[in-house]
Amino acid sequence: MAKSNRGKALWKLPSRGRGTCPVCRATRIKLLYTRTLEDGVKAKVCKRCRAGA
After folding, report:
1. What pTM was estimated for this model as a whole?
2. 29-49 per-position pLDDT tens digit
């Protein structure tokens, strides 16, 4: 059976959870993961940048 609620929470986010990643500067990408940047600010980053330190 299909999972009808998959990704439903993204519809409530501004721009459906998409934007420009502050780390790699990729545009129109999903920003789903929280990461603390070098300057101590918490920011949402893309999947590729979530593990990189």
Report:
1. 0.79
2. 999 999 999 999 999 999 999
